Amino acid sequence: MLPPLKNGEVLRGRYKIRERIGQGGMGSIYLADDTRLKGRECALKEVEYDRALPEKIREEAREQFLREATILARLDHPNLPKVSDFFSNGPRDYLVMDYVPGNDLRALILEARRNKTFLKEKEVLAWADQIANALNFLHSQEPPIVHRDIKPSNLKLMPHGVIKLVDFGLVKILAPEEVTITIIQGQGTALYTPLEQYGGSDAHTDIRSDIYAFGATLYHLFTNESPADARSRFLNPDNLIPLRQSNPAISQRTERAVMWAMSLHPDERPESINVFRQALLGHYEPPTLPLSSRRIQSPSIWEELAQPPESLLAWSAAGLLLLSLLATLAH
Q: pTM here?
């Protein structure tokens, strides 16, 4: 791995590095000042290629990066940082994006844990609605764009309450006529990565891979605990503890929707972000899945009363029938 950029270094005669604000297997992220537009802060995402690849493959990978960066630069959505530029600097490539201030959601999870409390379900669902908007926008592009690295630390809460999905380091453009090359060191964060995303091939990843990572992220937000990774769950499904066992205040609907999104096989997940959003926010009834061999906490009387009127009528009728039967037997 090449040494990091130095503070004060200027790239492309325009972007003056202020400090490194992130680092991972894919390269570093830098906060920089745009010297051409005074007062503008930007984030430079560095793309690091696998140096063990043959030179020909690395060249093809760089061409792929340029094609994908061109597509990203055309995107404009309130829950995504704007990609304003991209360029090469020696063996490295860079995406230039708007700098997003604020805490990431991982910091809020850690704060909740320190305070021995949970983030409010209503608040997390409001964030989920914004995240779903961003993912639906990406997945609706032609060709579709899969983010492939959704996790709490890649979700920034801006001071005015807007959520931004940041870091396009592992983005995949689903162009059917192209073979995607694994060009970046790293395949996402294991805790939020579905089984099909493991290994060196991207052939089996699609929009449902984002749905799994989205569900795993929500699991962490609701429980303050990171979910068991997909590989350990494959060996032992009981490794994934149901949400309400960790946080009994979570509604049954939320639990069912999140666990549905985290199904190990892609075909068993919601078919789209909108279907998942509807299941999560109450406009669609998620399927009942075998969550675990562990017993899940029974719903409270208040949750039973919150059921639709037709459900209450059915239970009332059954109760009256039972009372009538008992009265007959008593006589």
A: 0.78
Regarding whether 153 and 119 lie in a shared domain, the answer is: yes
Look up residue 87 and give its two tokens.
Answer: 């360029």
Say whether both 156 and 294 belong to one domain: yes
Catalytic residue among 33, 93, 104, 149: 149
Non-local CB neighbours of 128 within 8 Å, separated by 6+ positions: 214, 218, 277, 280, 281
Active site residue 149: yes
Q: How far is CA 130 from the centre of its chain?
A: 12
Q: What is the pLDDT of residues 146-156, one digit of tens each?
A: 888 899 999 99
* H or E element, residue 30: strand 27-34
DSSP per-residue codes, 138-159? HHTSSS-EE-----GGGEEE-T
- If asked whether residues 135 and 215 sit together in one domain, one would say yes
CA 207 to chain centre: 11
* CA gap 131, 117 in Å, rounded: 23
Taking every pair of C-alpha atoms in the chain, what is the biggest distance, in angstroms? 96
